[in-house]
Specification:
Radius of gyration: 19 Å
Number of helices: 10
Strand content: under 5%
Distance between the termini: 31 Å
Order of helices and strands: HHHHHHHHHH
Largest sheet: none
Length: 264
Amino acid sequence: MQDIGVRRFGAVNWLGMQTLGLREIRRFMSVWQQTVLAPLITAGLFLTVFALAFGKGRAPVMGVDFLHFIAPGILMMTVIQNAFANTSSSIVIAKVQGNIVDTLMPPLAPWEIMVGYLIGAVARSLLVAFVIWVGLFITLDQGIAHPFWALTWVVLGAVFLGGLGILAAIFADKFDQMAAITNFIITPLSFLSGTFYSAKALPPAFQILTHYNPVFYLIDGARFGFLGVSDAPPWQGLLVVLPALVVVLGLGWYWLRIGYRMKS
């Protein structure tokens, strides 16, 4: 007779992580009109509004046509918002409906639960990024200057905001709290991190604050990947984003390990 509580899956429960990840993918694909089509329409509306507002009178930014300059920022803004929404909505809905126990009871370590949720966030973000890029390629002939860096920043953005979504969902006990976090933290960070402007256009004091913001480097890094121009070198962005990512994932792991606001 095997001891109760002894893991029989080896060091890593690959099957469990795969199952949780597939569940998260199927969850957002079941409402693809909201999770894939809606972001494409939103990105298109942003570009249309700016095109109508500025027309051809807007001067180039960093040597790039204005619409081409903001396109990667809009893509990345949409990616990180969807990554955050994917993990946060899944956990909050499970907590409110009372079935979060179905995720906590299986033989999954805290970090394996995080990986399972992040698989869904990354998959959704990559799909959204690809769909939007296809739209940009068709309408603006938008290419990819550095494919490796473009993919790197999209994945980093998805993992970072997916991790923040896990933290927010663990902290929130109801939809109102989750909506407040989204409206007053995530949305301002998305809009005020260089999506529609170059950080060099800001006053010196705000430039300093901006360069301490990890979300700024996500958007700036995506711009470098797609256009080959950026406010900061991509390696500098990694020096800011990676430590922030470690903190976010570490805190998420700790909260899941102790059952913070997850177990009654």
